[in-house]
């Protein structure tokens, strides 16, 4: 395969991975809430986009704001009514709670949509820019652009707005944040809701790009956590950086003579282990966020 | 003038004006004529889990008054402040602030009322800049508008110019004195009626402590703000306060005008090493 094509494939896949990990970066990296239902939220986003495409004939990219709003509401409710109750309990409780939630959501989706493989076929699927022998598919290009816009928007929100700063402060020191007058229950709910909305956006992009069924969530969940560690906790741009590294490994490894497909996961996680050994804070991580 | 267990006499909220005016401390500019205390604790007890830390605490702070709460390490001073601030629930007793029973209020609601704590160990948001920390101090928006907050920020910078120089610096990279400065400034940004300061002097060089106390003097003079200073350094606290309470093993064992306590034999032996 031509070098240019590899580069394009890598950048597009990497930024998509970044989008999948962005919500985890916020909820776990900054707020310290482990959300094992993240993969389920991604799947929920994919099916929401699929439903709107088949029933209302809205393109998944156009319906992203609606998908995000839907997941935002679900995320808010989950945090406010469930996770807030165990926020001071040992983190294994949250672990179990969100694990159960993951199963519940996936099973519900399966009940409603069955476990058939679904896909969204837009009219522009397959078309794209051709530069020399390099093909840049429109749908992937748009997904990458959305991923970068979402990362930049999240970063701006966290660093430049009052509520964004309240989220960072609550993540750094919960009691000190309360002394500032920050209502941490609402702040947790807002953080979790934004994380779910970002998962929904990633799901909509996946629906556009790949065939999917309800059990696809697990693979993304695992990758999302690995990507966040790789990129570094507490930084939205770190999620994108981690996504790019993960995407690089998955794009390049199958091309190595004698390796072929099948080892990409193993090597991607080996990279994760290496990063943890040699740079425990991740690529762009800020240790004091923890 | 020293009374053991003043708690028995604080009921009825009648505090003699002479208690204030008789003091000749450096902060003696107060001319409070308010009858009711700004903060009043009555029979407060609390602890962690099964362990009781405070027993039957009663104290009050008048409008515009500087009150010190002194005692050795582990006497329960920070526990008391955290109970007042709502971070810790009281087991018994009442807390009244500005005429409102706040005993069961959550911490964030108490901060909104203008009862603000500068916590022990600064507790700044280390990954954020000085200015971001200060703006979070104004989170409750008691100033009322973005413009008023900006004006407050300028005022705080005027008061503590060093913070202005480093406004874009992350607070975890500041020295201890600068961090304490930032923590106090963050407390001021909340526009408090009563500022609780926990261990202002802890771990700081004496000249830095002097600077900070001078800054607090100025604020007190200009703003008629009330302070409750929690201190391990009894000398510093008693020199600056109008009145003081001595906390020992979770009980208030002494209280009275700071000048009297400074002269007291018991205090000199137990806390001042003279």
If you had to describe this structure to a student in words, what would you say it looks like?
- The complex is a heterodimer of chains A (290) and B (274).
- Chain A is mainly alpha-helical and 290 residues long.
- Chain A contains 11 helices and 2 strands, in the order H-H-H-H-E-E-H-H-H-H-H-H-H.
- In chain A, strands 1-2 form a two-stranded antiparallel sheet.
- Chain A starts with a helix and ends in a 12-residue tail after the last helix.
- The model of chain A has no long low-confidence stretch (mean pLDDT 90).
- Helix content of chain B is 36%, strand content 23%.
- In chain B, the strands form 2 sheets. Chain B has a 6-stranded mixed β-sheet with strand order 6-7-8-3-9-10, with helices on both faces. In chain B, strands 2-1-4-5 form a 4-stranded antiparallel β-sheet, covered by helices on one side.
- In chain B, strand 7, helix 8 (206-223) and strand 8 form a beta-alpha-beta unit.
- The radius of gyration of chain B is 18 Å and the shape is globular.
- Residues 1-34 of chain B have low confidence and may be disordered.
- The A-B interface holds A 162, 165-166, 168-169, 172-173, 175-184, 234, 286, 288-289 and B 85-87, 106-108, 111-112, 116-117, 119, 123-128, 132, 135-137, 139-140, 172, 186, 190.
